[in-house]
Structures are given as C-alpha cells and as structure tokens.
Amino acid sequence: MTLLFPNRLKAFSRFMFYFSFLFGVVYLVFLEGDQQIEALFTIQVPALLSAELFGDLKAGWQWVEAMVIDEFLSVLIIVFGILAGFSREKHEDELIDKMRNDSLRWSLFINYGFLLLTLLGVYGMIYLSFMFAQLFLILFLFNIIFDIKLFRHYKSAGNEE
Asked: Domain end: 67, 88, 109, which one?
C-alpha cells in the first residue's frame, strides 16, 4: 500500500509550489513592509491565541485584525509542496520510490546542516527569520532534488530508446 496522491495533481501542484515559493521569497526580500500590500492582506481572522509584540497574551477564541499574507503563502507552499513531491508518477516503480526516498533523505541532511550552521552562527532577532525559513527549506530541497533525479532518469531513459 502506497500513500501517494493521484498523478493528475502533479503538474498543477508543482507549478503552484514553485510559484508560491518564488513569490514568498520575492515578498520577503522586496515587498515586506509595503503599505499597499499589507493593507490588501489585512483582514479580521479568528484567533485561539494572540499577543502584540510586548503585550499580554490573550487566550480564547476571538477576532483579531492581522496581515495574513505570511499564513496564506505558508499554506500554499506546504499543501502544494506535499502534493508535488508525493504525487504518483505515470509509471511508478521501485526505482521512482527509491529516488523519492533518497531525495527526502538528502533534503533532511542538507536542511539539518543548515540548521547547525544557523545555530552556531546566527544570533539575535534574525535567528527567528532563519528558523522560519527552515520550515520550508526541507520541502523545497526535497522537491528540487526529486525533480532533478526524475529529469535525469527520464532523460537517460529517452536516450536508451
């Protein structure tokens, strides 16, 4: 029994994952703090916990005004990243499964290597930004490594015919 999504989801989810990831990077680097974009994505949302930067923690269901572009992009990256990486190939076999497992293993090694470097060399408030990026780096690395392995596999299979 395999726990893979149908193949028909792969192309769209792959496009949406890379688009969302790229837009997230562009937003963080160039657009964060832009008043027009923040006004567009500031809405009333339900919250279980909320707190201002140095304010009191408020517990219990309540409505708060928040800028939700970070949450929106995070949901898109997570959902479409998992769908892209774990959708069945047209010809799923043991070799594809091995490539998927190897890609996941390498993405874990690389991600935790970056985590060790972050722990040993990044301090202050920027540390939180690096830790936030770590949440998505493993999914990004997995999809990139797996797509490269698939590309090489299909390219070599095309040369043999």
From this structure: 88
**Distance from C-alpha of 95 to C-alpha of 24, rounded to nearest angstrom:** 33
> Are 126 and 79 a contacting pair, CB within 8 Å?
no
What is this structure's pTM?
0.85
Residue type, 140: F
2-13 pLDDT tens trace:
789 999 999 999
Residue 11 burial (CB < 10 Å; 0-12/13-18/19+)? exposed
Q: What's the CA gap between 115 and 73, in Å, rounded?
A: 22
Q: Which domain holds residue 128?
A: 90-161
Torsion 65-71-75-76 (CA) sign: positive
- Total count of domains within the chain: 2
Q: Rounded to the nearest 5 degrees, what angle is found at the Cα of 37, between the Cα atoms of 36 and 38?
A: 95
User: What element of type H or E holds 140?
Assistant: helix 126-160
Which residues fall within 8 angstroms of residue 134, CB to CB, at 6 or more apart? 111, 114, 115, 118
